[in-house]
Amino acid sequence: MIKKVFASMRRSPYQTMAAVLIMFISFFVAAVYFMSSLTAQRVLTELASRPQVVVFVRDEAKPEDVDRLKKTLSDSFKLKDLKYLSKDDALNRYKEQNKNDQLLLELVNAQILPASLEVSAVDGSELGKIYDLAIKDPAVEDAVYQKEEIKDLLIWVESIRASGLILVGVLLIESILVLLIVFALKITLRKDEIEVIRLVGGSSWQIRGPFIAEGVIYGLISGIFSFVLTYLFTVVWHISPIGVIPALASFSVPFTQSPVNVILWGVTQTMVAVLIGFIGSYLAVWRYLKN
């Protein structure tokens, strides 16, 4: 059967190249968007792990007021970190940040810097609720929250996911349709040969098997090549749609550092491509070789 498959591929090289190329492009784009989505999620997680809500405590607030506020926030939300900075801690941080500017250091002392709580949430979407709860507390003087930045980031991540899913879905459907067209042409061109096989008592599998196997081989080839190219782009060359944003260029795909994960990724990508090749060729055989 394998000889028949490769003979069929040699007899119609342009159809073969068209099918493999379309599938290769589809899976390459799908893999790049998948990697970009993972990286975007990593960016969101990293930013959410930093102090996103800073709560400034009133000077007259007592230690028990601060403890009560900390307990309220911890009980109400799933926090990644909750850190209290006293006036002296705030001064030490200020000195570290401005150690090269002596004038700024001379103008500030611990008394004019407020104590604060730095809050990091596990889920970045809860930061707004944390801000709303903290600002109402009588021990709180003020609070700062990067509302627009976080909101834009959440929208950006969801947009990548949604657009990626739509694009990948369209490309996969396109791959199946191209396979249907290619195998319809192949079946038409081999109509006389198929009829001879039927007349001499050939089984249904002898007729349909080579076409299905050819579709599987298309998927195997396109899956392997798309994995190799995606690996070169995202791991070796560090190129991705997210990488064009300078501020995010340092973020890499989270799981590509492990050889085991890379192998699993390659196997999964290739197997999905093989499955699409099987589905496309099977549908064509079912449609055009019913009898």
Automatic annotation (TrEMBL):
Record-linked InterPro entries: ABC3_permease_C, FtsX, FtsX_ECD
Highest taxon of source: Bacteria
Location of this chain's protein in the cell: Cell membrane
Stretches that traverse the bilayer: 12-35, 162-185, 216-240, 260-285
Location of the ABC3 transporter permease C-terminal domain: 166-287
FtsX extracellular domain location: 52-141
Cellular component terms per the entry's GO annotation: plasma membrane
GO biological process: cell division
Membrane topology: Multi-pass membrane protein
Pfam family, one: FtsX_ECD
Keywords: Cell cycle, Cell division, Cell membrane, Membrane, Transmembrane, Transmembrane helix
PANTHER family, alphabetized: CELL DIVISION PROTEIN FTSX
Entry's family note: Belongs to the ABC-4 integral membrane protein family. FtsX subfamily.
Protein name: Cell division protein FtsX
Organism: Candidatus Gottesmanbacteria bacterium RIFCSPHIGHO2_01_FULL_42_12
